[in-house]
Amino acid sequence: MSPRTVVKKIVPRKLFKTIEPYGHLGEAVFLNSLNNGSPARGMKVIGVTGTNGKTTTCFLIHRMLHEAGYKVGLMTTVAYGAGDNIKPQIEHMTTASVPTLIKRMQELKQEGVEWLVLEVTSHALAQHRVWGVPFSVAVMTNVTEEHLDYHGTFENYRNAKRQLFKLANKNKKGLRIGVVNAEDPSAELFAGDIKNPVTYGVKKGDLRAEEVNLTPAGSTYKVKISSDNYNIVCHLPGSFNVYNTLAAIGVGRAVGLNPEQIEKGIAALKTVEGRMVTVDESQNFGVIVDYAHTPDSFEKVFKGIKPLVKGKLIVVFGSAGRRDEKKRAVQGALAGKYADLVFITEEDDRDMDGAAIMEEIAAGAIKAGKTKGRNLLLIHKREEAIKAALKAAQKDDVVLLLGKGHEKSILSNGPKAAELRRLQQDDNDPRRVAERPYNEVEVARAALKSLKS
């Protein structure tokens, strides 16, 4: 049992939440001092934060710099590594723990990495886990309500993310450039936190996408700024990826890439694990796996996909235990509004009551017009829900599998979950939380094959 787990068990929840950031700060200061300063010293770090789009934007920036010949590393929810040697991320969090973060930065530096693209969460910023990291460029994709179970209020959550821009602004050796989604309601706050803001968007911004053409295979659009013209080809579907690519263009310009390098780099990225991944077993309907798990990301995915669907839109999703409970009914309502057939299932119940979580989601779908047993089905075992959804699909339908994306496990009830769930969260207690291997893409692929036989 780790020292953190021991402390968490004996210290009252409110007190632990107060002192936890200082524990991470002390850990970061101590471990950095052992290395005579941050192992990232000398590297130029591009930090990407936001509620949605962080991972994809990181991959776009990394691929763009790599294609341009830069020695660049990547650390995200999905993967980490350098150049073409990108390894899957197995930890169940976005920005790794302080020891893991430092270890990986050391490894990347030894591989000759000069630039690092780092996905940065509100938790990591609030807990000072990225103390000592020399951010040169900061990126904000968007900020909508999430993780309020931890931060308490939206303002606290947003302020945690703003710390990335403030850290980048303090780095006098960095570029002190902040790339900001101009259409986000918090854009002015983030732009005001850094010396050199650059904004982007479709409706407004310094970098503005024009002549946007969306297809099931991706998008094309044009950008004109100053004397530069860009003809962008993006192979990632969804209107939200127009915004992600615009953010990457902003970073490319900040670093000094020319239009041709930026265009080539964005076109070079074909897919991101767990993000709008198509599962094809020669069936006559579409199957897409995506990590969307917040109301904002749900709406973006639904709005992006719905106009392209010739048949029915079928969706399978759940909502995590020990996470923001208010979003469940909202997720249900959005699914009820956009999808023709809704399957509600598990998504990391942890030690909470999975049936109760599904009912909370269902309440929103029912308000949106869905009827249990007809176009709203509750199937707790995720593998069974996916198989039922695929079985229901017909020619030209699209099945969306949302919420798990790249993750390689599901956290479900342990043998004593019901009697111990009154205690504060502890995913490491096997009495309360059981972990089973899980891969959404492979589950879908196996189900499609079984339906053929």
Question: What is the share of helical residues?
Answer: 25-40%
SSE class: alpha/beta
Q: Compute the CA-based radius of gyration.
A: 22 Å
Main sheet overview? 9 strands, mixed
**How would you name the CATH homologous superfamily of the largest domain?**
Mur-like, catalytic domain
The rounded distance between the terminal residues' Cα atoms is 46 Å
Low-confidence blocks of residues:
1-8, 19-25, 27-31
Global geometry: globular
CATH fold name of the largest domain, please?
Answer: UDP-N-acetylmuramoyl-L-alanine:D-glutamate ligase
Strand order of the largest sheet: 4-3-2-5-1-6-7-8-9
Can you identify the CATH class of the largest domain?
Alpha Beta
Mean pLDDT: 88
- Under the CATH scheme, the architecture of the largest domain is 3-Layer(aba) Sandwich
The count of DSSP E runs of length 2 or more, i.e. the number of strands, is 20
How many domains?
2
Q: Percent of residues in beta strands? A: 15-25%
- Multimeric organization: single chain
Structure write-up:
It is a single chain. The protein has a nine-stranded mixed sheet with strand order 4-3-2-5-1-6-7-8-9, sandwiched between helices. A six-stranded mixed sheet has the order 13-14-18-15-16-17, sandwiched between helices. It is globular. It has two domains: 3-268, UDP-N-acetylmuramoyl-L-alanine:D-glutamate ligase (3-Layer(aba) Sandwich); 277-452, Protein-Tyrosine Phosphatase, Chain A (Alpha-Beta Complex). α9 (240-255) crosses α10. The chain has helices spanning 3-10, 13-34, 54-67, 98-110, 122-126, 148-151, 154-170, 187-191, 240-255, 259-268, 295-305, 327-338, 354-367, 382-392, 417-420, 440-452; strands spanning 44-49, 72-75, 79-82, 85-88, 115-119, 135-140, 177-181, 196-201, 207-208, 210-215, 218-225, 228-234, 277-278, 286-290, 313-317, 341-344, 376-378, 398-402, 409-413, 433-437. By secondary structure, it is an alpha/beta fold.
